[in-house]
Amino acid sequence: MTASPRQLPYAPTPYSYLPNPALTATISLDEEVKLSTTAAERDLHDSLAEIYSIILTLDGLEKAYIRDSILESEYTELCSRLLNQYKSILKDETVSREFMDLETFKNKWDIECPRATERLRVNLPATIAEPSATHAGPSNNASQSRTSATGSQILLATENFITFLDALRLNMLSKDSLHPLLSEVIQSVNQVTTIDFENRGKIISWLIRLNGMKATEELGEEEARQLTFDMEGAYAGFKATLN
Questions:
Q1: DSSP bridge partners of 146
Q2: What is the rounded CA–CA span in Å between residue 106 and residue 114?
Q3: What angle do CA 231, 214, 63 make, to 5 degrees?
Q4: For FRET with 3, which of 18, 136, 142, 184 sits at 20 to 30 Å CA-CA?
Q5: Is the whole-model pTM more than 0.90?
Q6: Where do the H-state alpha helices sit in the chain?
Q7: Which of 222, 186, 160, 229 is nearest to 76 (CA)?
């Protein structure tokens, strides 16, 4: 009587792996794996890791703001800081080249973070882009939605409008010239009124549009004329709230 073949301790498959004791590992499993070999590579990886962290943190901050789990003042400060850090890191050409764009970066590292994506697209805290009083519905009474603005705050908002319009007339059409000035316009306006006055939305639309441009990229002639027209309308709408 012949002996039956020895039964294997597992079910063999076409893809089963049989270890070969004759082969030995070429590296120690306890050896640290280095992601970079030079200081430049290490700095690049650190910067990309910081961007990843900023996106996740910003998404969590947006959720906290929506749930009223954080004061508006704290949200505004933290959000502004994160947005500034994000922009500062991407000013490095090496980092920017590796990062490519937000959607590419998100796909590469398998993250979604829709709230952070929208905030980075707008490039303004929600408290500035959409003052909370505007969420309560339209109001025909300017005094109801106007904050206790001082004369100096009204003067500052007026000066920021004029400065921005003057920049356009002087053909200062690059993003790095216009975006900071327009940001100052909307921030100073929000200190005076939270009314959704005529063409206020145009300010936000142009901020988003400018934010999507490269720093040295300039508006075309037709774009500049449209921007001037929209901002003159917004300025008139702002002044109407003061009457």
A1: 193
A2: 10
A3: 75
A4: 18
A5: no
A6: 39-66, 72-90, 93-99, 102-108, 114-122, 126-129, 142-145, 151-169, 175-192, 200-211, 221-241
A7: 186
Say which amino acid occupies 164. F
Asked if 193 and 142 touch (Cβ cutoff 8 Å), the reply is: yes
Q: Are 98 and 44 in contact (CB under 8 A)?
A: yes
pLDDT tens series, the chain, 243 aa: 555 555 555 455 555 555 566 555 565 666 665 666 788 888 999 999 999 999 999 999 999 999 999 999 899 999 999 999 998 999 899 999 999 999 999 999 999 999 999 999 988 899 888 775 434 344 444 444 555 678 899 999 999 999 999 999 999 999 989 999 999 999 999 889 888 888 999 999 999 999 888 878 999 999 999 999 999 999 999 999 887
